[in-house]
Amino acid sequence: MNKKLHFFQSIHFKIALVFALLLLITFQIVGAYFLQQLKREDIKTFKQQTELSSYVDNSLIHNLTKSNIQQADDNIRDLLEDTNNSNITEIQVVDTKGTVRGDSDVNNQDLVGQKATDSDIKQVLYNAKTYTKLTYDRSDNKRYYVSITPLFSAGGNTNTLVGAVYLRASLEPVYSALNKVTTIFVTASLIATGLGMILAILISSAITKPIDEMKKQTSRIARGDYSGQVQIYGQDELGQLAQAVNNLSIRVEEAQEASEAERRRLDSVLSHMSDGVIATDRRGNVIIMNETASEDLDIDANIAEGQSILDILNIRGRYTLRDLLENQDEIVIDLSDENHEQILNAYFSLIQRESGFISGLVCVLHDVTEQQRIDRDRREFVSNVSHELRTPLTSVRSYIEALNDGAWKDSQVAPKFLKVTQDETDRMIRMINDLLSLSRMDSGTAKLELELVNLNELYNYILDRFDMMLKNQQHNKKAKKYSIKRDFTRRELWVEIDTDKFMQVIDNIMNNAIKYSPDGGVITCRLLETHSQVILSISDQGLGIPKKDIAHIFDRFFRVDKARSRAQGGTGLGLAISKEVVEMLGGKIWVESIENKGSTFYISLPYEEYEEDLWDEG
Ligand code: ADP
């Protein structure tokens, strides 16, 4: 666009050229006219100079009328020899009979006495009128002036023709003088034209300089550089144009800044939106994509640019661009794979001009993964709770029915039946209590009663209770046998916890370890610390947990073996509650397990080392 202008294409050159041509034409016309006039004048003067004096004329007339021809011819020759006119090349005197009576040219003396051959001379003798002509002699390349004048003798009233004088004069001096003038004139006009051209270049550069500056400034504006200003040289049209260019530059800059600010505002709105936004052109190719959308769809905005929205959303095949344009309902886009769940709702709307012309499409992506998960969890939870409660209730009802039908009279069966109903009711109460505490933790209404506790002591205390239980059941043959091994750090670990809740967690894990351990299994309880946390672990030698279930072990109502868990009075909520509690205390709970070998449950809690000295001093 901004091609360098060639000098010969510039206005600058054109103005100078026109100026020079004008000068040249003027000189041509003036020169032609002037030279023509000069030539005419010069020839006129020349003619006057070549005219013979009246003395010569009269003498010639006198001699021509003489009867003594020989003497007359001698007189004529003398006369012609005396005629000293440098312009005249030849004078010939002819009598009325056409006989040459004298010739000024020494070489032409033999012509004397002979008839003149020139037809013009004959014509003059016949017409008795002066004849003049300008001729060009090819033999010597010279121009000549020829004049043939009739000679009359004055006698009485009538003039009698006595002869004629043929006169030939070279015009070369006149023409060479004219040539000199012409040369001077041409040289002068060329010099004038040259000077005129230089002057024109200077003047036109004064005109084109501001134009050139404006050209440069406008191309700078086009490039987006508004810093420059065109210099204003005067108040003429160019000055006004320069002013207009400067104003334009300011206006364009303002407009550019405004639209830039608008774009930044839009960018910041888009980038801070929690929803993904994609804008496309008329053909559905992505032109803008905000960060959220690029994160949701896991594609770089730069890569997405220019691609079809159908490919970006991976909905080609299900929808066409026409579907999106015509029917702007929401679309559910499921991007889930085995390890990652992601569901997006896509809402479409058109970008339409006032004329109704559709210039693009805007797609808003709303991540509904969490919402869908919560919905699903809630449904599952309700169905689980109903299921969990229905089973014990059905069994309670069947026992009560049996009792009602008369079993109550049977002193053998009735107590057993009643025991079962009581156990089932207890389990239901436990379950409802568990659910209540979970719901309290969910809603955030569960209060923690934190206190600084010596964890070694607390852990020992809990395990002591299990040892005691074991001792109490020693005589019960049916009771499961197990032993508890303790492997504690020597260091006293003080941590801030809610003792009751924490005891519940350890109870839970210990009960599970016992429940799922084989008879006579060893349960190893460890307590150790790192510089920022304490770690408790409880390992059993039980049946372990299948790998696929490990991720779900802390889910509500999850059990590896539902029947077995229920038979042992489990609610399937113990580990879920434990997890909530540990997390409320800022810790973590996890499990490592090998099927048929055993499981180890770990609990880590945040821990700050207390300076022992501090205690000593205190
Ligand atoms: P439950 O009341 O069924 O014990 P939990 O939430 O305490 O409920 O445990 C959930 C499930 O985790 C149990 O049903 C069981 O399948 C599995 N589980 C828990 N602890 C162990 C363990 N130490 N060994 C093997 N499986 C276990």
Automatic annotation (TrEMBL):
Membrane-protein topology: Multi-pass membrane protein
Gene Ontology terms, MF aspect: ATP binding; phosphoprotein phosphatase activity; phosphorelay sensor kinase activity
GO CC annotation: plasma membrane
PROSITE patterns: HAMP (PS50885), HIS_KIN (PS50109)
Organism for this UniProt entry: Liquorilactobacillus vini DSM 20605
Name the UniProt record assigns to this protein: histidine kinase
EC number: 2.7.13.3
Coiled-coil segments on the chain, per record: 238-265
Main localisation: membrane
InterPro entries: BphY/WalK/GraS-like, Cache_WalK, HAMP_dom, HATPase_C_sf, HATPase_dom, His_kinase_dom, HisK_dim/P_dom, HisK_dim/P_sf
EC class: transferase
Domain HAMP, chain residue ranges per copy: 205-257
Keyword Aminoacyl-tRNA synthetase on entry: no
Pfam families xref list: Cache_WalK (PF23846), HAMP (PF00672), HATPase_c (PF02518), HisKA (PF00512), PAS_9 (PF13426)
GO biological process: cellular response to phosphate starvation
Top-level taxon of the source organism: Bacteria
